[in-house]
Known about the structure:
With 378 residues, the protein is α+β, with helices and mostly antiparallel strands. Helices cover 33% and strands 13% of the residues. The protein contains nine helices and twelve strands. Mean pLDDT is 84; it is low at 22-35 and 304-319.
Amino acid sequence: MALTVHLSCLLALLVAGLAQGIKSSLRGQDPGPQPLELKEVFVLFQIQYNRTYSNPAEYARRMDIFAQNLAKAQRLQEEDLGTAEFGVTPFSDLTEEEFSQLYGNRRVPGEDPSVGRKVGSEESGWSVPQTCDWRKKAGIISPIRNQKTCKCCWAMAAAGNIEALWAIKTHQSVEVSVQELLDCGRCGNGCEGGFVWDAFITVLNNSGLADEKDYPFEGKVRTHRCLAKRHKKVAWIQDFIMLQNCEQSIARYLAIHGPITVTINMELLKQYQKGVIKATPATCDPRLVDHSVLLVGFGKTKSAEGRRAEAISSQSCPRPRPRHSIPYWILKNSWGANWGEEGYFRLYRGNNTCGITKYPFTARVDLPAKKQKVSCPP
Length: 378
């Protein structure tokens, strides 16, 4: 673990120096001595993320893609209006097409699914707190998952939603089976993408979900091999709803009831390292949402964070960074704990960044009602 951290820090420093050298060269300035070239930075990337390539031609191709991704990360760094930092990630040797094919979900349809948007009347009298982070309450948020090359973000987001709500309602922590959602889904192509509402319908049809330990994730769909009836259910839901497309309403519901699922445009996540992403519709179109994640909280940056970001960016980016606090959402991703902020990321809260308000869905959880015995009066 310590070696990984040291490699990550060293790689970040070297990439920053390389980017600064590229920028100076483009401006016609003498970048000064360059102790490490692109090839050496690429070697460190291979070590950190355990990458090997089949032949010299493939190695050269991947290094060229790596350089292009570094250039794009630098552009994103200059364009972003928040405190986000972009750079080397586990996906830095993939083309945009490969990344989309491996990790992108199907684009959701232009029209809303046939579920009415609503928020219960019990929320009307509640004010929205300044901050909310369900990760701080033990046993609510399950560990970060890794979908690998199975495009099942929709199932993992739905599973995380059910786990959190079940723990809040029953005070019992569970990890439910994502594989059951894939094997038993009504569409039968779970690793090719799907929608969170399909996951909820599968749970309702199966009268609950099995434990992850009993029905573990395999990263592929076993066609026509739904094993739901073989395993004991450890959590179930009553129904599911789509919330209003208003960030204030979403924050209120989140604070009162618990984490919810959202589907966003993942355009900027490939290069994301940490911080708050504040994108414009031009850089992250809110209409083109293609990645489902779990919304677990919200808050504001401290002004000191903005000053630190400004100090860092002043060496490589001409755009001044904000010094005031920035409101943000906290989201749980499904790309492993080595990505982003230990598997999480933050989006600016207040302007529908990357389409976060388009499809806010949540299950509704309650313990099953005990059936009353019926007896004939004497």
